[in-house]
Amino acid sequence: MSHKLKLMIIYTISVLICALLIYFSTYNKLLASPIAVLIAIGVGKLLEKLTENKKETE
Q1: Which of 7, 25, 31, 56 is the least crowded, having the fewest Cβ atoms under 10 Å away?
Q2: In Å, how far are 14, 22, 33, 36 from 28, measured between CA atoms?
Q3: Alpha-carbon distances, residue 6 vs 10, 28, 36, 37, 46 (angstroms)
Q4: Predicted TM-score of the model (pTM)
Q5: pLDDT-derived band of residue 56, with 50, 70 and 90 as boundaries?
Q6: pLDDT tens profile 39-53
Q7: How far is Cα 1 from Cα 54, in angstroms, rounded to an integer?
């Protein structure tokens, strides 16, 4: 699998997660905030690792 394809998949997943979070935040505000923070941190770390891996391969 190419690097661009992996990035596209991750961006798509993160957009879907954001959409779900918006849905849940309207449904249950107390539950959504900590989950949103955790997922945002997780996605950020994933993207960090990917950019590090890309730099190593170049």
Answers
A1: 56
A2: 20, 10, 9, 12
A3: 6, 32, 23, 23, 11
A4: 0.41
A5: low
A6: 778 887 887 887 777
A7: 13
List all residues 6 or more positions away from 57 whose beta carbon is below 8 Å from its beta carbon.
Answer: 3
Collapsing DSSP states into helix, strand and coil, what is residue 28? coil
Distance, in Å, from the CA atom of 47 to the CA atom of 24, rounded to the nearest integer, reads: 24
With 0-12 / 13-18 / 19 or more C-beta atoms within 10 angstroms meaning exposed / middle / buried, residue 4 is exposed
- Measured in residues, the chain has a length of 58
- Whether residue 16 is predicted with pLDDT greater than 70 in this model: the reply is yes
Q: Which two tokens stand for residue 9?
A: 């998949």
